[in-house]
């Protein structure tokens, strides 16, 4: 039975071009057991493809007949081909992380086939240190970044001895409790108008804030090198940081892990733009996604997020003043969201995201003033080890997307005692993106000094 896409989910399909593929992904690293047989990687591949059927949302493809996919709906792919979606490859020697990130950069730049279910998975062997990797990408209309990470992690075991089906196995549908058809409840016109009024009022109130204030909304960002048109080429960089170390910095400055993470981003962006001789006098503004559902709802598919705008204090030379500006900006965001009902947040989210979609569809993005400077996400992850078919996951890095006018994305996911950074950008618009890894470290160190 067809399931119509929401307005937000359809928007990701409408915005997609060759230069801006609209999928998100994840790169996970695993260690090969010391006593592994010679055919270990082949057996791992067989585990991923020899499945008993395909579960939702992995078996769903897009059906559409109208221009711009205005009638897009999810339907089951009756000719699903698992060998197309799960692929086995190897790194060239010496198999360094450098080669792995170069491969992921190329794979992430390639669009998904719109005639098939919108996801792919690559089993990559030959990584130095007796390791292998799993790179998975899913279209943003299928899942938002947070839900995608939670979905994949929820389909992994919590011990080496536990054996569970592959993430897309049809066995997962068998374990899912049956649901009665959705009951559509007609909300009163009065209540609907009230939500629209309040959601609109929140946006208008933010737009009235002084431009130099730490309280930010859309169209309060300076135009920078980050806010140009992009090509289809991508550059991906990734690294792990100690979570206890970041927590200690937060405790020292009466801040949260997210405060320190944003301060690391603000410091890194200031350093990068100074190195390019293009640091603006105004503070950069980050668009920060906020999840509106719990981790156990990740398998429902679609997008359930809102976005808020946060000052990164990049105009401030002092790291402590920069951190204070970020904390002030974030606290105002939390207070505002806390005063809003879910329906009001939905209206506010729609009002602040429609201009983004229209900018991409019409080609104005990257040519006019930006709504914000970049997207920065912090995705909570598991605090314990996860295992894939008996093999421990050593690290997991998020791989997000970039848009015209927004050539850089920084996303982190927490895993055990680490904060895993994933930086993705247009390699033609932003040179030497890998330098951000050094700049993150320098920005954290100055908060510790």
From TrEMBL:
One of its GO terms (cellular component) is plasma membrane. Keywords: Acyltransferase, Glycerol metabolism, Lipid biosynthesis, Lipid metabolism, Transferase. Pfam families: WS_DGAT_C, WS_DGAT_cat. Pathway: Glycerolipid metabolism; triacylglycerol biosynthesis; Lipid metabolism. Residues 5-260 form the O-acyltransferase WSD1-like N-terminal domain. Its EC number is 2.3.1.20. Residues 302-447 form the O-acyltransferase WSD1 C-terminal domain. GO terms for biological process: biological process involved in interaction with host; glycerol metabolic process; response to hypoxia; response to nitric oxide; triglyceride biosynthetic process. It catalyses: an acyl-CoA + a 1,2-diacyl-sn-glycerol = a triacyl-sn-glycerol + CoA. GO terms for molecular function: diacylglycerol O-acyltransferase activity. Belongs to the long-chain O-acyltransferase family. This is diacylglycerol O-acyltransferase. It comes from Alcanivorax nanhaiticus.
